[in-house]
Amino acid sequence: MQVTLTREFTFDAAQSVTCFPEGHKCRRVHGHGFKLRISVTGEVNPATGLFYDHAEIKRQVRPLLDLVDHNYLNDVEGLENPTLENMLGWFWGKLQPVLPGLSEITIYETDRAWGSYKGV
Prior knowledge:
The protein is α+β, with helices and mostly antiparallel strands. It has a single domain, classed as 2-Layer Sandwich (Tetrahydropterin Synthase, Chain A), CATH 3.30.479.10. A hairpin with a 2-residue loop joins strand 4 and strand 5.
């Protein structure tokens, strides 16, 4: 049986989306309370009834959250232009080598605005 498991995290950060023109509200320094969802997909072990330990997801995500939480994202290497798209790619690039089965990353900027990446 194949399942997808998801673990949710939050972090607060400031950013300036530098690709927008001068005067655009998103180019100005502003902040968000981000919600990050990490999903892994794979086969359930019939002997244990488990596929993945959520603690392993947390163990791999925690160092990345330490880099971005209560920080200015533009100062984080690889996030100099922290668009939602670039953030999805940054998290994917960091997590894909260490989280077998990584299948989707979703980041919410607000309750009404978010993006997802499936590594395609």
